[in-house]
Amino acid sequence: MRGNPTRSRLRNAAALLLIGWVLGACSHTPSLHLNDHYAMFNAQPAKGSTVYVCHAYGCRKQTKIRFGKAEIAEIRALMKKTKKGDTPTEERRAIAYAIAWMERYTGKITGTSADRAGMDFTASGDPTQQDCVDEATNTTSYLTVLQNNDLLKYHTVSVPFAKENYFRGVAGWTHWTAVLHERGTDKKWAVDSWIFANGVNPAVVETNKWYIAGLDTLPDSTK
After folding, report:
1. Cα–Cα distance between 11 and 31 in angstroms, integer?
2. Cα separation of 92 and 223, whole Å?
3. DSSP letters for 209-220
4. Which segments of the chain have a pLDDT < 50?
5. Distance in angstroms (rounded) separating the CA atoms of residues 147 and 79
6. Where are the domains of the chain?
7. In whole angstroms, what is the distance from residue 119 CA to residue 199 CA?
8. How many helices (H) and strands (E) does the chain have?
9. Side by side, which strands form the sheet with 175-182?
């Protein structure tokens, strides 16, 4: 007996929709506004040179830290010394060094200097540890401090976004990253500190190349 052609077409359409949804979910920015990201995780956005460092996973804990004039001056000097030219590429390299410095500075205050690389499923709630939500949110805050102090010439701070690939199992779970937009272009760059231990230069990778094959393929930023 032949099956119902209408029902068969509906099943096929449903399957295509499901495949489309799965593939479409591989990359997503939940909002168009930076503050919406913070609201999503009940986190406080950076204000001036003050950040609210997320830790304990999912911004469960937040510690207020201000980068004073001395710290901003040190960051400025580090970025100037790191740059080998006045180009977007060199600015991204300098930004990576600045983010690592800021992580080490805040890590001494929050205890996250002990933060281990990547994900530790036993660490949820541990105030010394940070997941990708914490890291993406914090890096966005650090980038905002750089922007607020006129330390970004070729880039602006963009909204964090996430990717996932559930076909890869646990290795493809949803992962968040901070994002920079290169001025005058449509290029966006993932700035990902989560894959390394506290205070190591983050990976800075074009968003369309980030987390495609796997996090283990991402390099730390150019030395």
Report:
1. 32
2. 11
3. TTTSS-GGGPPP
4. 1-3, 5-25
5. 13
6. 29-217
7. 16
8. 5, 7
9. 27-28, 155-163, 175-182, 188-192, 203-206
